[in-house]
């Protein structure tokens, strides 16, 4: 007999009711929003193994498949923006992280609510030394993600400190990027290991799981059916996409 898992509504332990929360408004832009196109890039298991082997000697320690894929795509996006604008641009990496099982105050896996935070990493265009290879981007992505995981696992003084680290600080950094308008925001979401292909609503398991085309930029990483590699759904500026597709790592290690 299958175990029945009931939802848990105890997230108020970490996010108690507040009398006042400072409002953070995202400035409106007068610029015309660029047309966004979405394309699917498939990195099969053989390509991923080759990439990991190529980078293993030059990277610091072990790295995950997700960290590798984010680094590869983010670097290609930065190069595509440079080809379009004729110069390097600062780039802000945004990666949502599920807080369940990662905080000092344990959150049950079946706890309801949007219990996540945004991890932010930054590539600075004004530093010439930041024209980095793939191994440098892997180390940057890995360091950003793992440093955040260590930080959130520490005991907090009170709920105000937790609220500040999880919500206020990431939100403030993102808004600053909206304000200066000189850089690019690169959101990534990983749906790997969520067993999407095991979902059955009564008419059988899916033959293929995908994401819908979207009017704004972002990258979704998903398992291929059978777990053989990764599908990356990349939505980005229509004028940058041709440069992105021509990037050697994208062209040589993926199929569309």
Automatic annotation (TrEMBL):
The organism's place on the tree of life at top rank: Eukaryota
Protein's recorded name: Uncharacterized protein
Gene Ontology MF terms in the entry: acyltransferase activity
Family named by the database record: Belongs to the plant acyltransferase family.
Keyword Transferase among record annotations: yes
This protein's UniProt keywords: Acyltransferase, Transferase
InterPro entries linked: CAT-like_dom_sf
Pfam families per UniProt: Transferase (PF02458)
């Amino acid at each position: 007999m299958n175990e029945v898992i009931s939802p848990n509504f105890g997230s108020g332990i970490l996010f108690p009711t507040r009398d006042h929360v400072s409002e953070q408004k995202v400035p409106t832009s007068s610029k015309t929003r660029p047309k966004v196109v979405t394309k699917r890039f498939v990195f099969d298991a053989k390509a991923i193994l080759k990439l990991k082997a190529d980078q293993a000697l030059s990277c610091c320690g072990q790295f995950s498949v997700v960290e590798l894929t984010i680094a590869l795509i983010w670097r290609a996006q930065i190069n595509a923006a440079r080809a379009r604008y004729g110069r390097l641009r600062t780039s802000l990496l945004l990666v949502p992280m599920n807080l369940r099982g990662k905080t000092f105050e344990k959150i049950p896996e079946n706890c309801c609510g949007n219990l996540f935070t945004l991890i932010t990493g930054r590539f600075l265009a004004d530093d010439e030394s930041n024209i980095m290879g793939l191994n440098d981007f892997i180390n940057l992505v890995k360091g950003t993600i793992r440093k955040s995981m260590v930080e959130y696992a520490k005991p907090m003084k009170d709920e105000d400190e937790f609220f500040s680290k999880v919500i206020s600080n990431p939100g403030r950094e993102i808004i600053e990027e909206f304000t200066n308008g000189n850089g690019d925001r690169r959101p990534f979401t990983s749906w790997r290991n969520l067993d999407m292909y095991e979902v059955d609503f009564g008419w059988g398991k899916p033959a293929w799981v995908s994401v819908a085309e979207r009017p704004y930029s972002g990258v979704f990483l998903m398992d291929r059916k059978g777990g053989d590699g990764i599908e990356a759904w990349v939505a980005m500026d229509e004028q940058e996409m041709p440069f992105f597709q021509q990037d050697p790592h994208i062209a040589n290690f993926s199929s569309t």
